[in-house]
Amino acid sequence: MTTLDTSTPVAVPPKPAFTVNWVRLAPFLYTIGLFVIWEIGVRISGLPHTILPTPTRVFEAIIQYWSPIWKNSLQTLYTTVLGFLIAVVAGLGIGLFIGWSKTIYAGLYPIMVGFNAVPKVALVPILVIWFGIGTVPAVLTAFLISFFPIVVNVATGLATIEPETEDVLRALGAKKMDIMLKVGIPRSMPYFFGSLKVSITLAFVGSVVSETVASNSGLGNMMASAQSNFNVPLVFAGLLMLAFEGIVMYALMAWFEQRMTGWAHRSTMAN
Amino acid sequence: MGRTFFLCWGLGMASPLVSIENVDMRYGGPSGTLAVSGLNLKINRGEFVAVVGPSGCGKSTLMKLTTGLHIPQTGAVIVANQQVTKPVSIVGMAFQNPTMLPWRTTLENILLPLEIVERHRHRLRAHKAEYVAKAEKLLETVGLKGFGDKFPWQLSGGMQQRANLCRALIHEPELLMLDEPFGALDAFTREELWCVIRDLHASQDVTIVLVTHDLRESVFLADKVVVMSARPGRVVAEHDVPFERPRQLELLYEPAFNEMVQKLHGEIATARAAA
Ligand SMILES: Nc1ncnc2c1ncn2[C@@H]1O[C@H](COP(=O)(O)OP(=O)(O)OP(=O)(O)O)[C@@H](O)[C@H]1O
Ligand SMILES: [Mg+2]
Q1: pLDDT of B8 over the 60 cut
Q2: What is the pLDDT at residue B1?
């Protein structure tokens, strides 16, 4: 009896000393799993490299063409981030402007929706006429495609201020400007930072589309020329690099969001 | 010189702080809801007025008219001898729903009115410590000592309402408008806060208008209970509350108190039936 009593409390603690955090590992395991299935699937079906290369073949291509891949990846990252940054500034500005008054909101919203409905790839030729082939159209396409979600989210944040909050402040003699600064802008920040994740992914779409049709550099251009040479592994290498850049930038935005507006997550969790 | 002084003094005493004269208020254009109609009410300086009435009768509308958040289509609202044409800044407001800003700590939330009211906003930065001390004193009064640096979402619903009350008081408003501020509280906390409000009214030179559904609350706290009719709301009766101040919670169990509560209850039931 006494031996049992003393042994139980000792027996419990050592157990959690080595536990695998499966949730943390899951993204890596699943990614590896995807590559494994892809590899096996291609090998079993016997598809040629010119249709669907195996991941090992794609990684080989990455190593083989590392210098152009690296150069073009940087170029794409550069145009994307530049376009995205312009979108952030412009989107924030236009969003605040639109959210400022009901009339502006009503007037500009349909125009914005119409503008957003236009496929941005259709604008690339116009941009080329105006600015020539190269970096500028890619940056502008990235900007045009990614600023809409930011505008909509910021404007929504401003437009959905609780009327009671507004009443409390107005009863104190608050001007429109006070309400915007004290409530509207802080309130729209979670919407804004949330939209950055969507926006950065769209920015990649924009820059690559533009590079594909109207540029001499960037991953889009590299993949287009690889495709015309039937170098399919290189095309896939470009896609992988794009996916990688996309994930990194997305994670950066998610981290940013968490840092800047953690209160929004915690306050909704508490309610 | 002496005469002007006397005249001003005389005016200040004679004219009520709030005077609502024959007010009609319709929401949403000419064919919209007529919320109040033929509303007349006078509130004297330093008075504690409770407004009761059936749900949807226009009590909140009355509050918004008084503070200038809504401007009536007909009639006049006069506050501190001036017709209200825009929000008046001598008021503090607290609603049933505590509208704390989740990105500010409780203390920062309470200091918010000071960043807006003209009289304080230019002094705030230089006299921060003084204002913070004041806010902390208020927090202590409502039983929230030490919670200033918590965020609102770290407080319970009742605690948020207390903080809300502090925010309505921080700029020492002449007129305090409370729209069902204790709605979501348990009986004990509510009684505790009744005492806080009672003591506040006794110790400061403040006029209070309280909208409530709780008739005991209205009789316990107010000097005058105003009963409104069903929509479109107007004042159907005004009762002076005869009980001596300072009132203790024991008053709630006295027959005369309950008699008055019952009378009010009957009046509101009639007002509801008339609709
Ligand atoms: N913003 C608004 N737009 C349109 N109608 C409104 C608005 N606010 C209130 N009303 C209408 O005016 C009437 C009075 O509303 P009010 O909020 O003043 O009632 P209340 O007495 O405060 O009710 P409760 O006791 O339920 O809070 C209601 O019939 C309501 O439908
Ligand atoms: Mg109401």
Answers
A1: no
A2: 40
Quote the CA–CA distance of B67 and B92 in Å, as a whole number: 9
Ligand 2 centroid, distance to B179 Cα (angstroms): 7
Low-confidence ranges of chain A (pLDDT < 50): 1-10, 269-271
Whole-number pLDDT of residue A171: 84
Calculate how far, in angstroms, residue B105's C-alpha sits from the geometric centre of ligand 1.
31
Going by C-alpha positions, the residue among A268, A235, A248 that lies closest to residue A197 is A248
Q: Report which of B259, B256, B266 is spatially closest to residue B236, judged by C-alpha positions.
A: B266
Ligand 1 within 6 A of B60 CB? yes
Q: What would the mean pLDDT of B151-171 be, rounded to a whole number?
A: 88
Smallest Cβ–Cβ distance between B95 and the set A164, A183, A271 belongs to A164
Report how many domains make up chain A: 1
Nearest-angstrom CA–CA distance, B90 and B72 = 19
Q: Which domains does chain B have, with CATH numbers?
A: 2-90+174-274 (3.40.50.300), 98-172 (no CATH)
Residue A5 lies in a domain: no
The CA-to-CA distance between both ends of chain B, in Å, stands at 55
pLDDT of residue B13: 52
CATH number for the domain that contains residue A247: 1.10.3720.10
Owner of token pair 């930072």: A193
Q: How many cross-chain Cβ pairs, A to B, lie less than 8 Å apart?
A: 71
Q: How far is A172 from chain B (nearest CA, A)?
A: 5
Convert the pLDDT of each residue in B171-196 to its tens digit: 888 899 999 888 777 888 888 889 98
Q: Are A200 and A250 in contact (CB under 8 A)?
A: yes
pTM for the model: 0.77
Which range of residues forms the domain containing residue A125? 65-270
Q: Are B88 and B69 in contact (CB under 8 A)?
A: no
Residue A99's pLDDT is: 84
Name every residue whose Cβ is closer than 8 Å to that of residue A120 and which is 6 or more positions away in sequence. A141, A144, A145, A206, A209
* Sequence letter at residue B86: K
